[in-house]
Write a structure and sequence with these properties.
The protein has one domain. The longest helix has 34 residues. The radius of gyration is 17 Å and the shape is elongated. Strands 1-2 form a two-stranded antiparallel sheet. The chain has five helices and two strands; from the N terminus they run αααββαα. It is mainly alpha-helical.
Length: 155
């Protein structure tokens, strides 16, 4: 029970931090580097799978990744770029904090359901894969849109 509460608090803090980071990001020009680095940094978390308690079955990997990809659709929808002068900026979305908090609540509900049926380690592994599937899909879509806008605007 302690691990469930602690992980829920950590998830809420991370979501809050992401909202703040996203709002600050709209004040500085976007770049390829700023788009692709978050999933690269997050990928180091996959080292958790070195430990047996975090191992998950391949079907669980697929399920978690596909759910993450589905959740990313909402983030993709809320992520738009705009050209300001000679730079491209991430356009602030009023829906982004609402979407992020909603996704957090849905993930917590799923976590409560799944967490009662499988171990804490497996649950952690699945939710890492879900989050990674979400961020990689979202950031690839952002990268594609950014490159398209840069090509059209600055050619």
């Amino acid at each position: 029970m302690f691990l469930l509460v602690a992980s829920t608090i950590i998830a809420a803090c991370m979501a809050s931090a992401m909202i703040v980071v996203r709002l600050r990001a709209s004040k500085k020009p976007a770049s390829v580097k700023k788009i692709i680095l978050p999933p690269v940094f997050m990928s180091t978390g996959a080292l958790m799978f070195v430990f047996p308690e975090f191992h998950v079955a391949w079907i669980q990997v697929l399920e978690a990744f596909l759910v993450g990809m589905f959740f990313s659709l909402f983030l993709i929808k809320a992520s738009r770029f705009e050209v300001r002068g000679s730079d491209i900026y991430l356009k602030p979305s009023k829906a982004f904090p609402v979407i992020l908090i909603s996704l957090l609540v849905v993930r917590l509900i799923i976590k409560l359901i799944i967490g009662s049926q499988i171990s804490v380690g497996e649950t952690s592994g699945m939710f890492f894969i879900l989050a990674f599937g979400m961020i990689i899909t979202w950031r690839l879509a952002m990268l594609y849109r950014y490159l398209q806008l840069r090509k059209v605007s600055f050619s």
